[in-house]
Amino acid sequence: MPKKDVSLENSFKRLEEILGQLESGELELEKSIQLFEEAMTLSTECQKQLEALEKRVKVLVEKDGGEYTEEDLQE
User: Fold this and answer.
1) What's the pTM?
2) In a domain, 3, yes or no
3) 60 located within any domain
4) Is residue 2 part of a domain?
């Protein structure tokens, strides 16, 4: 089954849900491991999405004379 694209915001929401469930301490070990695996996959996908977005980000820099230019985001 092809993997569908999930928005970064939805991934973060799901990660928060998983964290809440894991922190509750009410899950069986097997379910905890499944959720941990899902969280690790989501985390990797979020990192990839963030890296792609970072490449697109431009910073406006004011030059002498009040003009603005676009420059790549500096790390």
Assistant:
1) 0.68
2) no
3) yes
4) no
H or E stretch covering 57: none
Q: pLDDT tens digits for 34-74?
A: 999 999 999 999 999 998 887 777 666 667 777 777 777 66
**Residue 27 DSSP SS3:** coil
Q: Is the residue at 1 inside a domain?
A: no
Residue 60 token pair: 């406006």
Q: Tell me which residue range forms the domain holding 23.
A: 8-72
What residue ranges in the chain does DSSP mark as E strands?
Answer: 58-62, 68-72
Residue of 56, 59, 62 lying closest to 74 (CA atoms): 59
Are 75 and 67 spatial neighbours (Cβ–Cβ below 8 Å)? Answer: no
Contacts of residue 69, Cβ cutoff 8 Å, sequence gap at least 6? 60, 61, 63
Residue 4, token pair as written in the block? 């569908």
Residue 16: alpha-carbon gap to chain centroid: 12
For the chain, give the number of residues: 75
